[in-house]
Design a protein that fits this description.
TIM Barrel; 382 residues; 10 strands; 15% strand
Length: 382
């Protein structure tokens, strides 16, 4: 394992494993559910720890509030000073009866710790920022830091560049966590977010380097491109290397759900080689092929809905399916699909084909809806 130096104002120079353990995709008992399989998940944690991973990241809501108590259980066998623990203040748990300090104490109990090495304001976007601001969260967390209960205070980010600029100007932070991978730097704001943080001298923890697993298996053409360049390397290893190659990134968090995934990622960071300029161009091409292959060119014109005899929400289904193909997020897909009314779902399709005749983008809609039906059967989604 290789380590990066993190300069902490309260802990001095500390060595953080280049690979961090994200604890939101742990092994579960039943695919599609959130209940953690404690035996298999503990084996994953133990393997990561024994092979040098010393940074563990969780949050209140992960695994339907089950991640924190599991992580507290799994890590309790190890000396507290031998690992670095990160968790988050999630604004949706704040209410009149439960304030910042109450939640913090609850997390301490769940994670069996007196302090957190890294503590984050979770999922900052404009709405979340306002809720935390109304709760005076930053001041309260700063006070907990003064008491030694928080060693490093930061935030995880999913907001606008305008909000990020505001955060950097109005508050002092020890670190930040952003979604950063070779797809989102090419087609989103990830690179700009990184550049803003790096210019401000704020160390970065990367989340979603493999984009929820979707960058572990691209389309055939993109896979071949990367395999031809490095036959012995996994597709996922390219994503881990890309994220870890950027200056100021102190750890790359991967939501690993099997020992095989941990072993592959550890191999990547232990024999670490930063991506070269020619490899960046290769990844850019792979991202382009991947996005093109999985795109569904629906423009939400709703011509298909005008003629559907069952009134299926075809644009909504196509949008949901496109998100699934890119992210492979089973809990999110299951939740969003379940929120549709029965009449809107793909199962109502009778493959009459009138929708495809009206589609200006020439999408084979009945075929796509049949793919959704098959996906739902395989995932047990209703």
């Amino acid at each position: 394992m290789q380590y990066n130096i993190f300069n902490s104002k309260t802990q001095g120079e500390i060595s953080i494993s280049r690979l961090g353990m994200g604890c939101m995709r742990l092994p579960v008992i039943t695919p599609g559910d959130e209940d953690i399989d404690y035996k298999r998940a503990e084996e994953v944690i133990d393997y990561a720890y024994s092979h040098g991973v010393n940074y563990f990241d969780t949050a209140m809501g992960y695994h339907d509030k089950g991640s924190e108590p599991f992580v507290g259980y799994a890590l309790s066998k190890y000396p507290r000073e031998s690992f670095y623990l990160a968790t988050k203040l999630s604004s949706w748990f704040l209410n009149e009866s439960r304030g910042v300090e109450d939640i913090f104490k609850w997390q301490q109990e769940r994670l069996k710790t007196d302090y957190f090495d890294f503590y984050l304001c979770h999922n900052l976007n404009d709405n979340v920022y306002e809720r935390l601001k109304n709760a005076n969260a930053y001041k309260r967390l700063t006070e907990l830091k003064k008491q030694g209960k928080i060693k490093n205070l930061g935030f995880s980010f999913h907001g606008s560049l305008k909000l990020l600029d505001k955060l950097l100007k109005e508050h002092e932070w020890d670190f930040a966590q952003i979604q950063f991978n070779y797809l989102d730097t090419q087609y989103g704001n990830a690179m700009k977010e990184y550049e803003m943080l790096h210019a401000a001298g704020i160390p970065v923890a990367v989340m979603e380097p493999v984009r929820g697993g979707s960058l572990a298996n691209l389309c055939d053409e993109a896979n071949k491109l990367l395999k031809d360049a490095a036959p012995e390397s996994s597709i996922a290893s390219w994503a881990i290397r890309y994220a870890a190659s950027h200056e100021g990134v102190y750890t790359v968090l991967s939501g690993m759900s099997s020992i095989e995934q941990v072993a592959d990622n550890i191999k990547t960071v232990s024999d670490f080689k930063p991506v070269t300029e020619s490899e960046k161009k290769l990844l850019s091409k792979a991202a382009e092929l991947f996005k093109e292959y999985y795109s569904i060119p629906c423009t939400n014109c709703k011509y298909c809905m005008d003629v559907c005899p069952n009134g299926i929400n075809i644009p909504g289904l196509l949008k949901l399916y496109r998100s699934w193909k890119l992210d492979k997020n089973i809990p999110e897909y299951s939740r969003d699909y379940a929120s549709l009314t029965d009449g809107e779902k793909a199962e109502e399709c009778i493959s009459c084909g009138v929708c495809a005749e009206k589609c200006p983008q020439s999408i084979a809609i009945p075929d796509v809806l049949n793919e959704i039906k098959e996906l739902n059967v395989s995932l047990g989604v209703k």
